[in-house]
Amino acid sequence: MRIAITANGPGEVAGWFRPLARALYARDPGCEIHLFCVPDDYATGYEADLARRLFPQAHVYDPKTYLRVALGAQVPGLPDRVDTVLYLGGDLMHAMRLHKRFGGAVASYKFSRPSYRERIARAFAVDAKNVEQLRGWGTPPERIVTVGNLAIDGARLEAQQPTEAGTPDDGILIMPGSRGYEVENLIPFFFTMALRIARERPGLPIAFGISPFTPASDVRRAIERGGDPRVWAQKGRLIDDGDRRYLATADGSVRFPVLGNALAAATRARLVVTLPGTKTIELAALGVPMVAITPMNAPEKITFNGPFTYLDRVPLIGVPLKRGVAVTIAKRFRYHTQPNMDAAAPLIHEEHGTLTPGRVARVALGRYDDAAWLAESRARLGALYADHVGAADRMAESLVELPTP
Q1: pLDDT digit string (tens) for 31-51?
Q2: What single DSSP character describes residue 355?
Q3: Would you say the CATH fold of 172-387 matches that of 2-148+390-401?
Q4: Cα distances (Å, whole numbers) of residue 330 to 92, 149, 217, 256, 344
Q5: CA torsion sign, 293 to 297 to 303 to 306?
Q6: 77-81, 122-126, 332-336, range with the lowest pLDDT
Q7: Domain coordinates of the chain in residue numbers?
Q8: Hey, how many other C-beta atoms are within 10 angstroms of the C-beta on 81?
Q9: Which of 75, 123, 221, 360 has the most crowded Cβ, counting Cβ within 10 A?
Q10: What's the CATH code, domain 2-148+390-401?
C-alpha cells in the first residue's frame, strides 16, 4: 500500500499520525507512507523532524517541501501515484491538492466540506456526534466509518515509554504546551506558579513535561525573558547538569526537573497542570486528574481557528480587535477542554480569564489536596474514552480495504 498523509501541528503528528503509522506498518511492513507536514499556524516547525525520528522508513516532507510539491516540483522520494490520500490535519485543500497530483482514493478524519462530499471516498468519524457533523457537511452516510479518537491510542503508546529521573511521583507535573505563544509566555508563568507552590509545600515533587516539539533553545530563551509583562512571571534559567535538565531560579537554589516523556511521567503524578488541547484528551485516556487554564492576559497573542487569528497584524486597530474577538470566542464556551465538552461535566478543573501564577498555584494545591475529587476524576476520565481504544487498528484496516480508483 502507498499512502500520502497530510498533518499539521504536534497533536496531529504525535497523537494521530504516530499510532496510525504504527498500525499500518504492523499490518504491512512494506507499506509506503508519505507524510506531508503542511503550513499551519498551529504547527511548531519541528513536526517533520519528530516524524522522521519515529519512523525512519517513512518519507516525510516539511512544509516548505510540501509547497514545492503542491506547485508541481519534483523532490527526492516523491511517488508518481498513491493508492490513498488521507487527511489527518491542516486545511483539507492540501489533501485535495495531493489527490490531484497523485490520484488514489481520498479519505478524511474528523472533518469534511460540502464541496468535497463527492470526492471523499471514506470519512472516518471519532464518535456519533462527529458522524452527524460529517453528514451535515454532506458526506454520504455509507462512506462514514466510526473508528474512535486516534489520540487515545497515541497516549497509551507514549505512556508505555520508560519514565525519567525526576518524575514527580505523587506530585505535580506541569505541561505548558508547544505553540510559540505558549512556550514564550506560559513556561515562565508556570515556572512562577511552581515557585509559589514550592514555597508553600517544600518537598512536594514538581516537574515540567516539555513537548518534544520544543527545542531547548526556545525554552532557555523563554525562561530568561520571563514572558509578556502581563503574565506576571519571574525570570529564571535553564540548567544542564550531566544528562539532566532543570528550570531554575537565577541563583540555582530552586530547580524543577525538565522531562521529555511527559505522558509516562503523568501516570505517576497525582495532578497535572496544563492547557486545553490534545494533551487533555490524552491525559483523560490515562485517567490523570488535571487543572487546565485558559489565560486571557494577552489574548491578541493567542492562535485560534479562522482568519481572525491574523487580526493582530493589521496596523493600529488589529491588536484591540483581536483581543475582543478572542475574549468573545472564549466566553461562548462553558468548557474549553474536549473531555469536559464530551462529558458535559467539569471532570477537568478549568480556570479561564486573566490569571496570575499565584491564583493558579492556589487552585492546583486545592485540587491536589482534595482526595475525593482526585478519585472521582481518575475514575470518570479513565472511563470516558475507553471505547476508543483500538482506533488506529480500525482505521488501518479500513484504509487497507479501501478500493483504489
Answers
A1: 999 999 999 877 888 899 999
A2: -
A3: yes
A4: 25, 24, 31, 31, 17
A5: positive
A6: 332-336
A7: 2-148+390-401, 172-387
A8: 11
A9: 123
A10: 3.40.50.11380
